[in-house]
Amino acid sequence: MSGQNILKCKKCQLEITNKIITNHNSDTFHEQCFVCKLCSTPISDPYFTDKETGDFYCAKCEVIRNDQSKPLRESLGFCSLCYKYFRQNEDILTIDLERYHIGCLKCTICKKGINNEKYYREKMTSKLSNYCCEDCFEKVDKCNGCNSMTLGQTLLAMGKNYHANCFKCFKCSEIIKPNSPYSINKQTNTPSCQKCN
């Protein structure tokens, strides 16, 4: 057998001398080794692979398996971004009382993963908040009202950028809506609404 490639079974690591079964990852198996973990029947398409254990499941048993783990998955909760359930013992990123899979939450600018320590969040312009890593935060435009980044629609007033909800009267704190009249206090360089003029 020298000089020849010996095919080994991915599961039992023994040489394959008869029928070869190849899965989607090009791994090779004995026919009797490539079976469903639950019912032990030979695997055929479609089949499912458990990412944690590497075990294979036929389509019928995958349905059973999901039904069995549903209460556990619901008790663990789901990611606020992709809405997929968390797995048991999975690392979870918690930010502002919302929970995410590690890797789901990314910087809006550079697309690198956001960690739990150094991030900035823009809450004003969209239902789904924009997040920014510390490095990119130094480069983006900031709202003059809240000093948060302005990645969505902004209001240009007094030569500065504002979130629409951040441009407020200095005296009464009412939001000054776009195209509404306002005056500027020359001493403090702050806006006042028409009511407080």
Describe it for me?
By secondary structure, the protein is α+β, with helices and mostly antiparallel strands. It has a domain at 35-76. The chain is 11% helix and 21% strand. It contains two helices and twelve strands, in the order ββββαββββαββββ. The strands form six sheets. A two-stranded antiparallel sheet has the order 1-2. A hairpin with a 2-residue loop joins strand 5 (92-95) and strand 6. The longest helix is centred in the middle third of the chain and has 18 residues, at 59-76. It is elongated and about 90 Å long. It comes from Dictyostelium discoideum. Interacts with ChLim and rab21. GO terms for molecular function: zinc ion binding. Pfam families: LIM.
Give a short summary of the structure.
This protein is of the alpha+beta class and 197 residues long.
Listing every helix as H and every strand as E from the N terminus to the C terminus, the arrangement reads: EEEEHEEEEHEEEE
The fraction of residues assigned to DSSP E strands is 15-25%
Number of E-state strands: 12
Name the assembly state. single chain
Question: Percent range for helical residues?
Answer: 10-25%
Give the strand order of the largest sheet, numbering strands 1, 2, ... along the chain. Answer: 1-2
Low-confidence stretches: none
- Gyration radius from CA atoms, angstroms: 29 Å
Molecular shape: elongated
Structural class computed from helices and strand pairing: alpha+beta
Keywords: LIM domain, Metal-binding, Phagocytosis, Repeat, Zinc
Protein name: LIM domain-containing protein F
Pfam families: LIM (PF00412)
GO cellular component, one term: phagocytic cup
